[in-house]
Amino acid sequence: MSGLAAKGANSPSSQKRAVFPRSARLLRHSDFERVYKLGRRHFAAHMTLFYLSREHGKGLRVGFTVGRNLGGAVERNFMKRRLREAVRLQAQFDAGPFDVVINPKKSLLHADFAELRNEVGRAFEVIRGSAAKQ
């Protein structure tokens, strides 16, 4: 089979790539610091989430921090990719104006992705519940 014939409907070039929008990311150091200092915490089996409601803006913004104590660059990047995908699948970016920082634990490396996805979903439910109380 030639290279052109091998490309089918399921090839990466023919599929639309799912994105984690830039507007949904926490990018500035000052934003991370504000969430750490003023926000609340939610502890889960494979991660800790810090979250803070924003007064201005709309939608959810998420950032990830993976310290060097969790492994080398390959392991840390793998953790961030897994978390980013779980958040992309579970989060509702049009939800209330919250900033969320996710810190993984070492156990995330070997956790089943379905379990990780459920954990992220439960964490976002806690955040929505916190917003409803305020």
Descriptive terms for the model:
single chain; 134 residues; alpha+beta; Ribosomal Protein S5, domain 2; four-stranded mixed beta sheet; disordered N terminus
Counted beta strands: 4
Shape: globular
The radius of gyration is 17 Å
- End-to-end distance: 61 Å
What is the C-level CATH assignment? Alpha Beta
Instruction: Count every helix, treating DSSP H or I runs of 4 or more residues as helices.
Output: 4
Class based on secondary structure composition and strand pairing: alpha+beta
The percent range for strand residues is 15-25%
- Quaternary: single chain
Q: Provide the residue-averaged pLDDT.
A: 85
CATH topology: Ribosomal Protein S5, domain 2
Any guess at the CATH architecture?
2-Layer Sandwich
Number of domains: 1
Topology of this protein?
Elements: H1 3-6, H2 29-38, E1 40-43, E2 47-53, E3 60-64, H3 73-90, E4 98-104, H4 113-133
Parallel strand pairs: 3-4
Antiparallel strand pairs: 1-2, 2-4
